[in-house]
Amino acid sequence: MGSRTEDPPAAGEPADGVRPPAAGTVTQLVTAAVVVALGVAALTEALNLGVGTPSEPGPGTWPALVSTVLTVLGVLLATQARRTDDAERFTRTGLLVLVAVGSMVAFVAVVGVIGFEIPAALLAFFWLRVLGRESRRNSVTVSLGLTAVLYALFVGALEVTIPHLF
Fold it and tell me: Which end of the chain has fewer surrounding CB within 10 Å, N or C?
């Protein structure tokens, strides 16, 4: 008579009900160590920039605050490593994150040489087409539109001194 409807998956649960294998304690500790190392390295560089004072903050103030938070979160992650089972084991799809980070490094490397417009459009296209598997048409349209919006915002409206072609 009445049909039974299934409840939607809980927040954070996959729609098909199949969870990827969980990462072990060692993986979580290594991840926490990497987060702490990045936080400490960033904090060191921020301190080299100079943090100033509360009334006159220096160029390293915000980087120092963010890297301190990153370091603390890494330590908290390490303390929870044995009690947490919601982290996923590293798989091939995790390599996409490394590819994305690598593309950002390439972006930063060339922006100072040729300006931000071409690298921004290429980066957005790469992320949309290759990583996001969007159609070529959508990838071109969105990447060019995004580049125009970024130009208008940072160069036009905010007058940020970043390398640009026009």
Answer: N
DSSP string for residues in 18-86: PPPPBP-HHHHHHHHHHHHHHHHHHHHHHHHH--B-SSSB-TTHHHHHHHHHHHHHHHHHHHTTTT---
Query: Structure pTM?
Result: 0.59
Instruction: Report how far residue 35's alpha carbon sits from residue 55's, in angstroms, rounded to the nearest whole number.
Output: 30
Phi and psi at residue 82, to the nearest 5°: -75, -25
Can you say whether residue 115 is alpha, beta or left, with left for phi > 0 and alpha for psi between -120 and 50 degrees?
Answer: left
pLDDT band at 150 (very low <50, low <70, confident <90, very high): very high
Taking phi over 0 as left and psi of -120 to 50 as alpha, with beta for the rest, 11 belongs to beta
Q: Which helix (H) or strand (E) holds 12?
A: none
Find how far residue 128's CA is from the centre of its chain.
15
* 52, β-bridge pairs: 57
User: What residues pair up with 22 in beta bridges, in sequence order?
Assistant: 88
How far apart are alpha carbons 163 and 138 in whole angstroms? 27
Delimit the domains of the chain by residue range: 12-90, 91-166
Cα 46 to Cα 10: distance, rounded to the nearest angstrom:
41
